[in-house]
Structure formats: C-alpha cells, structure tokens
Amino acid sequence: MDTLLNIIAVEDHDALRDITVETLRDAGHEVVGVDCAEELVEIANTRHVDLMLVDLNLPGEDGISLTRRIRQCQPDIGIIMLTARGKVSEIMQGYASGADIYLTKPTTMEELNAAIQALARRLKPARPVTTALKLNLYKLTLSGAHRAVNLTAPEASLLAALARAPGQRLENWQLIALLGKAELDYSKAGLEMQVARLRKKLVQASVDVQPIKAIRQYGYQLSVAIQMV
C-alpha cells in the first residue's frame, strides 16, 4: 500500500503544476501547488509538510537556493528536484544543495510517484506490528497489555477521532471543536493539557513509545494502533 504524504509542489509552469497536483491528489496525497518560493512561505508555516517537489527555474529565488534554505530549516523533510537541467554538473549541484532525488524533465507521473514512495519509506517508515489498544466508547475505558484505564468522555472522543483520521492526525482547530469549544475562546495551553492527560493514560495502558506526537504549527498525530470495541 502506498504511503500518503503532505506535499507542496513548487512549479511556475501552470499547466504542469496543475497536472502534478491533480495526479498526486488522485493517488491520495495532500498536495498544494505554488508558483514561486515567495508564495511558499505562508503555506509552509501553516501546515505540516512531508515532501517538497522543487523546480529549479523559478521566478525570484531559484530552486537551488530554495532547496538549500529548506534543508537548513527542515533537515528531515523530503525534497525531489524536477528540472530540465540534465548536465552532470547541474545534477551534482542539485544533490549538493540538499535534494534527495533529482529527476530531469520530461518525467512521467509513474516515475515521480515511484520516487515519492522511495522517499516515503524514509519519511514514514512502517511501524512494527503491535497489539492494538482497545477503546470502549460506551464504558469509556482503554485496555492494553498492562491494565485498563478509565477515560473521560472528551478524552475518549479525542482518541477515537485521532484513530479514525487519515494518517491518524488532526489539526488543532479540529481537536478543539471535538472538545465542544470555540477556537477563539479556547487556548492552545488548554488543548495541550488535554492531550498531555490522554498521553499519560495511553502510557499507563501499555504504550512504551510516544503515543501522541505534536506536529509544529499543525496539530497532533496518534502513533499507536487503536481498536474500537
């Protein structure tokens, strides 16, 4: 099964950008297209990004400079360069600036998707198979190998929503809405406190890893398997 990613495509050719975005969305990825580095700033600051597709011939800041800057700020992000520049010296410069994969145009969508999946194995490695924790939404209990713990109704709702969400991740505003709060009237600290309590109960039940991870400027992601009973 393909791993689904959050992707930004930086491409100034409108038709090519639209085709790339549409094709990758059809494959199940979350994709946003922008036509220059300057437009990228606001989007990258408001959403979690796993992978960037970067053209080299961009208006304003070029792809080499952009890739170098992205790699410095986000060392773990995936970067695929898509460009018509195919000289050995240009390919070497692309890798030196921080690209993981360098593809020369014209590139088929099949080749691009294969490159994305190759990178996805590093970005989102398969989790080891573990026995799922059992969440009982009627009794408000969470059962694991160690013990069963009681949950509050809001904790059970948050856990169930995270377990059912694509990629087991939700944005802050979605989690706040699940708590029956208005985003403007509910502080980030209040949400963090709720998540911290739920995280502690997951650990008590049977989890030895970080069960809920914070995604900077986005929200939270569940890192364990949950079975609803």
Alpha carbon gap, first and last residue: 26 Å
Could you give me the name of the CATH homologous superfamily of the largest domain?
Response regulator
- Tally of discrete structural domains: 2
Describe the biggest sheet?
A: 5 strands, parallel
The helix/strand order is: EHEHEHEHEHEEEHEHHEEE
Low-pLDDT regions? none
Q: From the alpha-carbon coordinates, what is the Rg to the nearest angstrom? A: 20 Å
Q: What is the spatial order of strands in the main beta sheet?
A: 2-1-3-4-5
Oligomer: single chain
Q: CATH architecture of the largest domain, please? A: 3-Layer(aba) Sandwich
What average pLDDT do the residues reach? 86
CATH class categorisation of the largest domain: Alpha Beta
Which topology of the largest domain does CATH recognise?
A: Rossmann fold
Shape: elongated
The portion of residues assigned to helices is 40-55%
Q: Report the count of strand segments.
A: 12
Can you offer a commentary on this structure?
- The protein is α/β, with parallel strands linked by helices.
- It has 2 domains: 6-123, Response regulator (Rossmann fold, 3-Layer(aba) Sandwich), CATH 3.40.50.2300; 133-228, Arc Repressor Mutant, subunit A (Orthogonal Bundle), CATH 1.10.10.10.
- The chain is built from 8 helices and 12 strands.
- It has helices spanning 14-26, 37-44, 63-73, 88-97, 109-123, 153-164, 172-178, 188-205, and strands spanning 6-10, 30-34, 51-55, 78-83, 101-104, 133-136, 141-143, 148-150, 169-171, 212-215, 219-222, 226-228.
- A 5-stranded parallel beta sheet has the order 2-1-3-4-5, with helices on both faces.
